[in-house]
Design goal:
By secondary structure, the protein is mainly α. The chain has 7 helices and no strands. The longest helix has 26 residues.
Amino acid sequence: MKLVEKYLRKRCVAAVVLLTAFSFFINFQVLFNWFSIDDFILIIHNDFVKDINNLWVVLNPANIVNVLPVRLGARPVFLAALITQFHFFGYNPFGYHFVSVVIHIINSLMVFVIARGLGIGSRRALLPAVIAALIF
C-alpha cells in the first residue's frame, strides 16, 4: 500500500512540475513586453496607485464596501495589488508581467488540485489544467 501511495505521489509531483513548466513556457514571452492597452490608464496615468500611503485608504474596512472615487475604486483588491506593485516595480513592466505569469501558473495549478480533489487521476486532471493554462 505504501508503495502505491509513493508511486501516486511521484506522479502527482511530476504532473505539477510539468504543468508549472508548461504554464511558464506559454506565458514566458510576455515578460519582456512593454506596458500595453489599459496599463497606461491603470498604472502610468493613475496618480492614485503611485502613492503607497493610498494602500491604507484602499484596505480600510470602511472603504471596502464603498466605491472609492478613483479608477478601479470598485475593485479594492486589484487596486491594492497595483499600488503594491508600483511601490516595488515603479515603471518597470517586467515586474508587473512577472506577477501576472505567477498568477497564471497558480490558476492552472488550482484547476489541477480541484480536479484531483474531485477524484480524477493525475493524468486526466492534467487536461483541464493545461486548458486553463492556455486560457488564463
